[in-house]
Each structure stands twice: as structure tokens, then as C-alpha cells.
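Training component of the fellowship. As part of building independent skills, the fellow (R.M.) carried out the full modelling exercise for a liganded target. The chosen ligand was adenosine-5'-diphosphate. The inputs are recorded below so that the supervisory panel can assess the work.
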Amino acid sequence: GRIRKWYGTLTDIEDRKRAEEKLRRSETYLAEAQKLTRTGSWAWDARTEKMLYCSDELFRMFALDPEEDLPSEKIWDRLVPEDRNRVRQVCSEAVRARSAFAEEYRAVLPDGKMKHIHVTGHPILDEAGKVFEYVGTNVDVTERKRMEEELRGSEARFRTFVDHATDAFILHGEDGTILDVNRHACESLGYSRDELVGVALTAFDPRADTAHMQLIGERLASGEVVTFETRYRRKDGTQFPAEVRVREFRQDSRRLAISFVRDITERERTQQERERLRQLEADLARMNRVSIMGELAASLAHEIKQPMAAAVLNARTCARWLRRDVPDLSEAVDAASKMVDDVTRAAAIIDRVRSLYRRDAPQSESVDLNEVVREMASLLGEAGARSSVSIRTELDPGLPPITADRVQLQQVLMNLMLNGVEAMRDRGDELTVTSGRTEDGEFLISVRDCGVGLSPHENERIFETFFTTKPQGTGMGLSISRRIIEAHGGRLWASANVPSGAIFQFTVPAPQDGS
Ligand code: ADP
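Fellow's submitted model of the complex:
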């Protein structure tokens, strides 16, 4: 029973060891690659419907232990029920058809987390052409799904934002071909999105010519945001004015441009309307002056007649002294200098009236309010007399000069006084203009008439531009007057006179030193 001899063989297992080492390495690399790409691989026996092989990554994917038996039902259990039925059906159909399959499903792990998994399987057929195995991969696409959903969400948000924008957004390629548009672009041009995509933007712009487009292209290429105004033609042939802002940007290696198109019909209309009103206002302001000028022509004639008559008288006297046998030079000189005075007075009256029609910029000069009232009372005396209205002034002598625009204040007084005269036309009454101070020390001018008066609802409306109750009225006088007084830092308002008529009053600030 004792060992006598040992027999043995030596086998060179170098190659086998190397092969094993190589296999181990390649298995490690494969496992690493599977981990990195979140890909698990498997083999499935079509006849026994059992798993033949599952890679470690596959176990991990479903939170299963690689040390345990090969899972089969455990994996199916992880699938959300509605996906489970669908994928089972796809698999059995693939087996029947001996075809490959690819599906995506959701699985819920024990910790409640949901995974999105993409599975692909390939059949392996035996010699008889029967499926005996399927090999395949499962890829965890949860992260990709999340990113896709996020992107879809942000795209949807962006799309909503772009579609609700009140400007038209047009995305176009370097050659001007439209690539995408927002809803507003479709609405304003009258085309559907499909009709617009692929068409050159210039097709809607009758003004776009090659030179113009080239110039814009060059400016865009230099990084500029180009803004221009043009007109776009709608599908129905009508056109609308548009302000276009274009900027270029790069997407990968492509040069794209985006145009923001704003319909400026309303803006143009407002501008035109404003211009029309400005023109109308200017015309009416001129008419206001012209109609006042008509009134003044009579007063002017009357005022000038008197110094002219005196000048003629003095000229005759002067001639008489000179024609004497012994000319009395001293009397002649006396008469001639009186004549100079008369003519100077006439010239001063003309100057005063002329100053009312000059279109000068507002002046700041020292103005004696009482003097302005006196002047206007005398200028309008004749106009009043023709309407049987006399003008009376009650002036506070203690008002120092203020800094103001004399001509503008004359205009205000003239407007108020002529309105008063018109309100009392042929009633044979008196228009009273007083100067004084308010309780706050401001200077106050009141023009009081006993005319038709103001109805309560007219009280503020009369200051609106163009409000008039007179057939020949312009409705400018009071609005211009109020504007002038406000520009001087004062107020102009109307109230009822007792027992009848209206009082128009305005204030102007007292001079700075308070005197
Ligand atoms: P216009 O005299 O050209 O109508 P105004 O702006 O000077 O323009 O006056 C507007 C309106 O205010 C007049 O049409 C008139 O109805 C009313 N109004 C102005 N002053 C008086 C006044 N003293 N008495 C009654 N109504 C007046």
C-alpha cells in the first residue's frame, strides 16, 4: 500500500494562461464599457424562456444582486404594468417572426426611482432555422430622456413665448430663405407656416432689390443689428409698413439671421394724425390772429387818425409861419417839432400793433402789467364801441414790473377782452378789467363782463382747443391763452359774474424780491 513511484506529465500551459489572462482583461474592459455606457447585455433561451446570461451591468440596472441566480421574472416585475404587457407582446411576436426587436419601456426600482430603458434583441437560429436564443442589450436612457423632456419643455416654453410675441419673428438662412416663423408672422403676412418656410423673405418685400439686400448682408456680416423700414405684401395683395430689425448668428457652421418685423401702421397713422393736428393748430392759430387783426384794423385806423390829423394841422401851421412876409422861424420850428412828435406817436401805435403779429420766440422782458392793460383797453376801445361796449379799467398802482413776454400777455388780454365784448354785443354794457393781487401775493388780472355767461358744463370745456360756440369762432383763443399763462407760471380760469356774465381771471407770479 506504499507509493513506490510517481509518474507524471508536464504540460506547457503558457498559452492557456495567456488566453485566460486575455479573456479576463477583455471581460474587465467590457464590464467597464458597459458601466460607462449604462448598457447591460443578456442572452435568453427561447425554448425554456429562461435567461442564459446577464452582464453585471444588467443586474445593476435593475438593482439586482449579481451573486444571485439569473433573473428572468424579476426583471419583468420591475416594468411598469402597461409597458410590461406591451414589451411581452413585442418579444413573443419577434420570436414568432424570428426577427430582431427594439423597444423602450419604464421600470421602477425598489427605491421608487423610475428608469427609462431601451432594449434591443437579435435572434440566433439553429441549423433548422429555428430560434434557439436571443442576445441583446438594455441601455439605460433615463438621463437622455430627462434631457429630451427638458429640451422639449424649454422648446415648448420658447415656442409659446415666440408665438405670443406681438412682433413677427422670421428665421432665415444666409440667402434669405425662410427657415421658421412664429404665429404672428403668419398672421401678419396672411400665409400658413408651411407656405412661408422655404420662400425667400424678399418675395414679400416689393422694395427689396439685390443692391439693397447686399448692403444689408454686408452690415449683418460685420455683426451689426440692422434696422430699416420697408413695406411687406400680404397674401391678399395689401401692404403694410414695417420696421425690421435683423441680426445674424451662427448655428454650428451655418450663418443664420433672425428678423423681427413690427407692423408700424398704427405708428405711422398716429404720426400723420399728429402732424395733421399740428398743422391745423398752426392754421387756426393764424386764423385767430387774423380775425383779431380784423378787429384791430378799425381801432388802429381810429388811433392813428388822431396823431395824423394833429400832424397835418402842425404842418399847415408851420407852412403858415414860413409863408409870412417875415417868416417866424421860431414858431415854424416849434410847429415842425410838434409834427415830429405826432408822427412818432403814430409810428409807435403801428409798432405796438405790429408786435402782436410777429412770430417771435418767447421773450423775457420787464413788463408793467398795468401798462399792458391800459394799452389793450385803448386798442380795443373802438372794437368795443362798435358793439356798444365800453371798457373800464381799475388798476392797482402798486404793482411792480414783472419779467414776462409782453406780446404774449397782450395776446391773452386781447383774447379775454374780445371774448367779453362779443359776449355783451349790443347790450350796451361795461367790460371791466382790474389788476391787483391774490391773497398769496400773486398778481391777478380779472376781465369781467355782463354778457351771456357760461353754462356750468361749459366751464372747463371752453379751454379745450377747438371748442367754440361761435359760427366764426376758432376755439383757439382760450386754449392758447391758458397755455401762455401756464408757461408764465400762473393760472387762468373762468367763473360766473353776478348777476350775469363771466369773469376770466389769470395770475402771474410776483417778481422774485417779493415787492
Ligand atoms: P372762440 O372765441 O374762437 O370761440 P375761445 O377759445 O376764445 O374761442 O372761446 C371758446 C368758447 O368759450 C367760446 O366759443 C364761447 O362759447 C366761450 N366763451 C369765451 N369767453 C366767453 C365769455 N366772456 N362769455 C361767455 N362765453 C365765453
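The panel noted the following from the submitted structure. Residues 415, 419-420, 423, 449, 451-454, 462, 467-470, 473-479, 502 surround adenosine-5'-diphosphate (CB under 6 Å). The first strand starts at residue 39 and ends at 45.
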